[in-house]
Design a protein that fits this description.
The chain is mostly helical. It has four helices and no strands.
């Protein structure tokens, strides 16, 4: 077997691929910042993932911050939906309609 084939098999068996979606703005700003430091997204994501895997305090704080942001957005969305539902329910009530 050639060295390149062995390397491809090894990579296939040991590396995992991750696909993420970023906004165009986040992607371009992130890419620009990394370019200024001669880094690739792959290198930075790999480094961050290794920090998380080793329970690095900075990475853990970032994860907790992301969790709190997600929780806040979810609660805001739920609260907005509840308010919308309440207004919708109120709009169907006729205060002049006689009830038995």
């Amino acid at each position: 077997m050639s060295d390149s084939l062995v390397q491809k098999i090894t990579d296939f068996e040991t590396k995992k691929s991750v696909h993420i979606n970023l906004t165009k703005r986040t992607h371009s700003e992130f890419r620009k910042e990394l370019f200024d430091h001669s880094l690739s997204m792959q290198e930075v994501f790999e480094y961050f993932a290794s920090l998380v895997a080793s329970n690095d305090e900075r990475a853990t704080e970032m994860i907790n911050e992301a969790k709190n942001i997600k929780r806040t957005k979810t609660l805001e969305k739920l609260n907005k939906n509840e308010v919308d539902d309440l207004y919708d329910a109120i709009s169907h009530v006729d205060p002049f309609k006689k009830t038995s």
